[in-house]
Amino acid sequence: MIFSPVMLCVAVAIKITDGGDIFYRQKRLTKDGKIFSVLKFRSMRMDAEKDGVARLSTGENDPRVTRVGRFIRAVRFDELPQLLNILKGDMAIVGPRPERPEISAQYAKEMPEWNLRLQAKCGLTGYAQVYGQYNTTPYDKLLLDLMYIARPSLFEDFKIIFATVKILFMKESTEGVAEGQVTARVETGAQGNISQTFK
C-alpha cells in the first residue's frame, strides 16, 4: 500500500515511453534449486535478449536500458514488484540474491560450492547486496552469502534492511560488468578479494 503510488507512476512511465510490457518476468533460483519467476519493472528494451543469451547489464551505458529504465534502476524502483514475490512466498525480504539458472550453472562449473547458496530462500536484499556490488565477483558473493547463512539472526536481518536504505544512494553499487562479459566471473581466473567489499 505504501509503495503503490510510486509503482503506479513507474508503470505509467514505462507504458508511455515505448508501449511495451510494464513488467519483466525472469526465471530465478531459490532454496533447494527451485525455479520461480521473479517480477520486476521492465528497464530494458523488449528485445534486450533477442539472441537468447542470458547476460548481466554493463551498467548505465548499456544500450539496452531505456530512459525510464536508467532512472528506476538508479533508485531501485525496478525491484519493487518483487514485494509480490515475497507475499507469494517465492522470496524472503532478506536472503541470497536470486540468480538466473543459466548464469548460476556457469558459476557452478568452476565453483561447485556455489550451489551452497541454495540452502536459504533468496531475498530482495541480503548480505552480498549490502556489502558487495552488482559486479562483485561470484566468489566474493558466495563468501558473503555463506557468512549470512551460517549465522541466521533476526537482528542481522534488521541491520541488512536498514543498510539497504543507505546503498540506495550509492551509485557504485549498481555498476555493471565490463563490455563483452555476460556474467560477473573474473575472466583471468583470479578470485575476488573479499576485504575490498568492506572498505
List the helices and strands and how they pair.
Elements: H1 4-18, E1 23-29, E2 35-41, H2 67-74, H3 82-88, E3 92-94, H4 101-110, E4 123-125, H5 127-131, H6 138-150, H7 154-167
Parallel strand pairs: 3-4
Antiparallel strand pairs: 1-2
Keywords, please?
alpha+beta; 10% strand; globular; 199 residues; two-stranded antiparallel sheet; 7 helices
Q: Can you describe what's shown?
A:
By secondary structure, the protein is an alpha+beta fold. It has one domain. Helix content is 36%, strand content 10%. The strands form 2 sheets. It has a two-stranded antiparallel sheet. A two-stranded parallel sheet has the order 3-4. A hairpin with a 5-residue loop joins β1 (23-29) and β2 (35-41). The chain is globular and about 45 Å long. Residues 176-184 and 186-199 have low confidence and may be disordered.
Please list the strands of the largest sheet in the order they lie side by side.
1-2
Number of strands: 4
Mean pLDDT: 83
Straight-line N-to-C gap: 36 Å
Main sheet record: 2 strands, antiparallel
Helix/strand class? alpha+beta
Number of domains: 1
Strand content: 5-15%
Number of helices: 7
Helix content: 25-40%
Query: Which term fits the overall shape?
Result: globular
Query: What is the H/E order?
Result: HEEHHEHEHHH
Q: Which consecutive residue ranges, at least 5 long each, have pLDDT under 50? A: 176-184, 186-199
Quaternary status:
single chain
Cα Rg: 16 Å
